[in-house]
Amino acid sequence: MTRAYIALGSNLGVPEDHLSGALDAIDGLPDTTLEQTSRWYRTAPIGGPPDQPDFLNAVCQIDTRLAPYDLLHALQRIEQDFGRVRLERWGPRTLDLDIILYGDRIQNDPELTLPHPRAQERAFVLVPLADLDPTAAIQGKPVTDWFSKVADQAITPIIA
């Protein structure tokens, strides 16, 4: 089994329902176990159109036997099941699922880059990932070491 971390985000429709449903769908993937989920956070969009709503974000930890591309394609199917349409980069979406870390795998190709190429630049990834494992490393540094780079990004925990 490989430990992987998946970032979840939604800012269209009912984001709470989309994240809950996505977590159920991830837990239902073959040869995959959902181990834990971070707190949920409200965050302002980064990039994209200026008038889009805030996002609801989280990170989940899974253990999986799925190969990286199989996991990526399964996550893309889940996004489609929740009505994801890719119209513009960083635009609003019903559901966004990104593989942040897949074990200690490092790769860079047009379809899948691991670790996620902008993870260390996004508070909505770093903070919930630190909830789960503050020692998880991105580019050889613990996630908490990147916090100073994202200190200007608003992120608010949601109290359930």
UniProtKB/TrEMBL annotation:
SUPFAM superfamilies reported for this sequence: 6-hydroxymethyl-7,8-dihydropterin pyrophosphokinase, HPPK
Domain 7,8-dihydro-6-hydroxymethylpterin-pyrophosphokinase: 89-100
Biological process annotations from GO: folic acid biosynthetic process
Superkingdom to which the source organism belongs: Bacteria
UniProt entry tagged with the keyword Transferase: yes
Keyword hit for Iron: no
Keywords: ATP-binding, Folate biosynthesis, Kinase, Nucleotide-binding, Transferase
GO molecular function, one term: kinase activity
Family: Belongs to the HPPK family.
Function: Catalyzes the transfer of pyrophosphate from adenosine triphosphate (ATP) to 6-hydroxymethyl-7,8-dihydropterin, an enzymatic step in folate biosynthesis pathway.
Protein name: 2-amino-4-hydroxy-6-hydroxymethyldihydropteridine pyrophosphokinase
Higher taxonomy: Bacteria, Pseudomonadati, Pseudomonadota, Gammaproteobacteria, Oceanospirillales
